[in-house]
């Protein structure tokens, strides 16, 4: 008999028909007259109830079926008497694929997420992680659909690279050199390395993405990125996925519109396509989740120049607000500042713009003196970061400096090794054009959409300092 997925069996109203479902036991309740087995196969958050007459199954076998066991069940689909489900199965035959001994780490309900992280290979089978990873899949689909429908080409940028896009120097090196020998010799000859030069895992596909955008018009990347920063926070991973659209002929206004429209599309997609999982998370994890998602859809994002943001923060401090870190003009904002602006002051998402040049990457377009944004001529850049409730920075973006001379000035004043950058500079040398783009941290989007609190719980196998098991 062909297997029916639980998601389809629960929707089916063909009562009286025999079906076959397969899945893992979520719970097993016994009484004298009847056993109830809740079965889940990952196709939906909902379980199908299997009603077993104990007289029809070998007593030992029935007893051995505990939470986590894997079964194949044949039975009659009947209308459910219970609340909240349409159909259930009157069991005729059970085949046990795999029993689940009592030391199964996911046996008990209500374990902490910290506990479950130690069992990243098994936590996937719990309700919460099932919901999170079905939503994660749906968000990936939404991203491709959004860009495809808006005329962007999916552009694959390299994972192994010789350039440091963000210039922050926190890259993981890639080498085939024998490190033990290198340590003894004392100096490294990279001409003998696999690529003949020093290479690392990429921190961002942007620079190569700009090559794509200045040829194809509009591209997006969507792939893994790596940062060897020792940030042990609920918002940072060493390996995370980034979505990076890059568009020719886009200015700052257009970029902000794209950021807002794109995020709203993704949030709306979740509300339309992940309803059961969202309702589960709203009930079990975060009672404000669905209201917050709807709130984002219904609010216009604030456009806030950095200088104005600093003014608001200092006004708050003058009125008694306490922050751990300082926020003078020129400081990089800490997440407490970002969250104050978003959650307390404006109560909606904020796109912060026109930051001091010194705290942003070399490639951002320098504001003209008369822009009026900075109060300090030529000292601000057209960055456009999106700040979200609960999350802080979810998008980092900017208009790119298209002037060869200005870009060169930044490369030189920041001591960025030029020999690695000629291919990038050629975009400014040959037919340079205004262009802009951004990077969305995929896991930060998933955090927002699921209401989960820790970024380690929205990627199946998180990589963080001192942790790369599985
Ligand atoms: O702001 P970032 O560093 O920007 C860039 O890398 C640009 N090159 C993007 C571009 O313009 N094409 O990173 C972009 C986003 C951040 O806003 C954040 O959401 C996420 O990537 N991000 C991280 N997510 C998880 N763990 C980390 N360690 C992250 N670092 C950045
Ligand atoms: Mg950033």
Shape by Cα distribution: elongated
Please give the alpha-carbon distance between the first and last residues. Answer: 36 Å
Order of helices and strands: HEEEHEEHHEEEHEHEEHHHEHHEEEHHEH
How many individual β-strands?
16
Q: From the helix content, strand content and strand pairing, which structural class follows?
A: alpha+beta
Weakly predicted, low-confidence segments: none
Number of helices: 14
Relative helix content = 25-40%
As a whole number of angstroms, the C-alpha radius of gyration is 27 Å
| Percentage beta strand | 15-25%
Q: What's the rounded overall pLDDT mean?
A: 94
Strand order across the biggest sheet? 6-10-11-16-15-14-13-12
**Biggest sheet, in brief?**
8 strands, mixed
Bound compounds: 4-amino-1,4-dioxobutan-2-aminium adenosine-5'-monophosphate, magnesium ion
Using brief descriptors, characterize the structure shown.
binds magnesium ion, 5-stranded mixed barrel, binds 4-amino-1,4-dioxobutan-2-aminium adenosine-5'-monophosphate, 8-stranded mixed beta sheet, alpha+beta, about 475 residues, single chain, elongated
Q: Care to give the gist of this entry?
A:
With 470 residues, this protein is α+β, with helices and mostly antiparallel strands. It has 14 helices and 16 strands. Helix 4 (127-149) crosses helix 14 (442-450) and helix 7 (252-273) packs antiparallel against helix 9 (289-297).
């Amino acid at each position: 008999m062909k297997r029916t997925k639980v998601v389809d069996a629960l929707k089916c109203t063909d009562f009286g028909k025999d079906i076959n479902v397969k899945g893992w036991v979520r719970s097993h309740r016994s009484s004298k007259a009847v056993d109830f087995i809740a079965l889940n196969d990952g196709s939906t958050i909902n379980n199908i109830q299997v009603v077993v007459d104990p007289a029809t199954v070998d007593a030992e076998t029935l007893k051995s079926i505990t939470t986590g066991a894997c079964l194949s069940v044949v039975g009659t689909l009947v209308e459910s008497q219970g609340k909240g489900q349409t159909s259930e199965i009157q069991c005729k035959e059970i085949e046990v694929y795999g029993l689940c001994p009592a030391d199964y780490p996911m046996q008990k309900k209500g374990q902490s997420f910290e506990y479950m992280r130690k069992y990243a290979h098994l936590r996937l089978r719990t309700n919460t992680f099932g919901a999170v990873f079905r939503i994660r899949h749906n968000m990936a689909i939404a991203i491709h659909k959004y860009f495809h429908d808006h005329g962007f080409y999916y552009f694959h940028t390299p994972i192994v690279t010789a350039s440091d896009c963000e210039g922050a120097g926190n890259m993981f090196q890639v080498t085939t050199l024998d490190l033990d020998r290198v340590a003894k010799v004392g100096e490294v000859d990279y001409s003998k390395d696999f690529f003949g030069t020093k290479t690392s895992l990429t921190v961002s596909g942007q620079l190569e993405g700009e090559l794509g955008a200045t040829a194809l018009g509009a591209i997006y990347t969507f792939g893994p990125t790596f940062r060897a920063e020792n940030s042990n926070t609920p918002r940072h991973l060493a390996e995370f996925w980034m979505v990076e659209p890059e568009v020719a002929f886009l200015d700052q206004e257009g970029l902000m519109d794209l950021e807002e429209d794109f995020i709203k599309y993704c949030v709306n997609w979740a509300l339309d396509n992940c309803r059961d999982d969202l309702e589960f998370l709203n009930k079990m994890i975060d009672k404000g989740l669905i209201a917050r998602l709807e709130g984002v859809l219904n609010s216009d994002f604030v456009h806030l120049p950095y200088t104005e943001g600093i003014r608001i923060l200092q006004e708050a401090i003058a009125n008694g607000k306490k922050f751990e870190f300082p926020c003078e003009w020129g400081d990089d904002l800490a997440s407490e500042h970002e969250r104050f602006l978003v959650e307390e002051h404006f109560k909606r998402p904020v796109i912060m713009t026109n930051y001091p040049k010194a705290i942003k990457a070399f490639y951002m377009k320098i504001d003209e003196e008369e822009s009026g944004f900075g109060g300090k001529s030529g000292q601000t850049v057209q960055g456009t970061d999106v700040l979200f409730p609960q999350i802080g920075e979810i998008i980092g973006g900017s208009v790119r400096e298209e002037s060869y001379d200005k870009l060169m000035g930044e490369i030189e004043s920041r001591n960025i090794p030029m020999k690695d950058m000629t291919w990038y500079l050629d975009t400014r040398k040959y037919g340079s054009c205004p262009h802009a783009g951004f990077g969305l941290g995929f896991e930060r989007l998933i955090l927002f959409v699921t209401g989960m609190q820790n970024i380690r719980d929205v990627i199946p196998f998180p990589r963080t300092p001192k942790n790369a098991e599985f």
